[in-house]
Amino acid sequence: MKRNDIKTIYCDLDGVVFDTIAAIVNLYNEDYKYYKDYKLVHWYDIESWNFEECICATYTDINNYFNQPRFFDELEYMPFADVVIPKLAEHYKIVFVSHGQQPNLVQKKELLRGIFPFAKFIGVNWNEYKDKSHIDMSDGIFIDDSAKNLITSNAEECICFGDEYEWNEKWNGKRISNWCDLEKYLL
């Protein structure tokens, strides 16, 4: 049953709707497999925000992946996100709020227009904002995998999504690990 206390679901993309870690790791493995110190990396090996486990790549190399069109070719949904989001849209306004550099944000907007045309997209340029706190989310629930974004939000309720990582391990609020559980919680 729909929750009447909220109107809008604000939802992060990377690590929530899309398996960004797997996409970055796939690109890394493709680009660095012939390097001397290369070791195959799996998505489940990643524990650090900066992908330090990808030892052949620099921080800049990893960040550049996010802005490349081939990054979007690698993206896959987090399990059941593509099924649950349209169901939620029948009851709530859906707003995707994503943090990134301008090329990444433009490509995300185009991608979302094709797959979730009912949703609104707000791109937050990380060269201007350190978090998403300037977005008014007071009429809804905010779902993100970053504790920093959740802590600074004015949303009615904040939910940390997915596995525990260094970027969310100190979150003490509500956690939901997958889209099936999120559907049960919200509908």
UniProtKB/TrEMBL annotation:
Taxonomy, superkingdom: Bacteria
GO biological process, one term: deoxyribonucleotide catabolic process
Pfam families: NT5C (PF06941)
GO molecular function ontology, one term from the record: 5'-nucleotidase activity
InterPro entries documented for this protein: 5'(3')-deoxyribonucleotidase, HAD-like_sf, HAD_sf
SUPFAM superfamilies assigned: HAD-like (SSF56784)
Gene3D superfamilies the UniProt entry points to: HAD superfamily/HAD-like
Active-site annotation: D12, D14
Family: Belongs to the 5'(3')-deoxyribonucleotidase family.
Protein name (Swiss-Prot/TrEMBL): Uncharacterized protein
Organism: Blautia obeum
